[in-house]
Amino acid sequence: MRQVFFLLSVLLCNQALADTLAPFAAEFRIYVNKLPTPVKADLVLEPAEGEDSYHMLLKAKSFLLTNTEESFFEWRDCQPRTSRYLHEFEGFGQHRYHRMNFQWAPPRVHNVSEDDKESIDIPDNTLDELTILLRGRCVFSQGSDNYSVTSVYGDRIRTHHFAVIDRETIKTPLGKLDTLLVEKKRDGDSKKKRRTLFWVAPSLDYMVVKAKHIESTFLKADLIMTDYKGPDPDTSDTVDSKAITQQNEADSSQPAPEAVTPEAG
Fold first, then answer.
1. Is 82 a domain residue?
2. How far from 203 is each of 14, 78, 137, 230, CA to CA, in Å?
3. Three-state DSSP string of the chain
4. 63, 65, 169, 192 - which has most CB atoms within 10 Å?
5. Is residue 55 included in any domain, yes or no?
6. How far from the centroid of its chain's Cα atoms is residue 220's Cα?
7. Distant-in-sequence, close-in-space partners of 139: CB < 8 Å, separation ≥ 6
């Protein structure tokens, strides 16, 4: 289950190279072995108090569970720098959480969980697992096809490697989009068949619009974007995919205009 929500945590808007991030909101649906599940997720990025500061919220919920992740971070030199990260999961009779405060002089993280408190040293530029893909927006827009990042979750420090392996055109709520197919690998992964794939759209500033996690031959999870409100791929305006769909449905329901024949005479 943690792998499924890790996928959600990296469905982020990797917007074009700029000094600021544009706010957005997106909705996703989870499929397991190609079957739809009742789990839906909302991902929101918005400005926070302070210069170059942002708040990212991911909330996935159904009648079975609720999974909430939040990151408060600064965006500078085309990279996030986390100040606070929170993760809470409730479901299946369990309640787990991590509340992590980052310091950068020297770099350390202070974590409080349901059963422990600890502080550990971390490498400089370590990311939390909600903002991990934001680094890709700058790397891919500059023409590179791979990068590596370090993340921390609780007391675990991990290195992740991302590489473009193909290009595909896929259907989205905004229509067909050209995407880069990106594969993620993690140092020390004990399962050889485990793979995580992301489809990122350059026209949406390298936002992930689809993802797949392959845990084994018999367990696969897909994350599909079902709604998007944020920067338009063709203009600087804000676009709402639900409004586009409703307008298209309204247009298709209108009867075709009758031909007018001029009277003789």
1. yes
2. 11, 18, 12, 12
3. CHHHHHHHHCCCCCCCCCCCCCCEEEEEEEEECCEEEEEEEEEEEEECCCCCEEEEEEEEECCCEEEEEEEEEEEECCEEEEEEEEEEEEECCEEEEEEEEEEECCEEEEEEECCCEEEEECCCCCECCCCHHHHHHHHHHCCCCEEEEEEEECCEEEEEEEEEEEEEEEEECCEEEEEEEEEEEECCCCCCCCEEEEEEEHHHCCEEEEEEEEEECCEEEEEEEEEEEEECCCCCCEEEHHHHHHHHHHHHHCCCCCCCCCCCC
4. 65
5. yes
6. 18
7. 146, 147
Count of domains forming the chain? 1
> Please, are residues 73 and 81 in contact by the beta-carbon 8 Å criterion?
yes
Residue corresponding to tokens 């697992």? 129
With respect to residue 30, please indicate whether it lies within any of the assigned structural domains: yes
Q: How many residues does the chain have?
A: 265
Rg, C-alpha atoms of the chain? 21
Residue range(s) defining the domain that contains residue 69? 2-244
- Structural domain includes residue 250: no
CB 3 within 8 A of CB 215: yes
pLDDT in tens, 140-179: 888 889 999 999 999 999 999 999 999 999 998 888 999 9
Residues 70-95 pLDDT 10s: 999 999 888 899 999 999 999 989 99
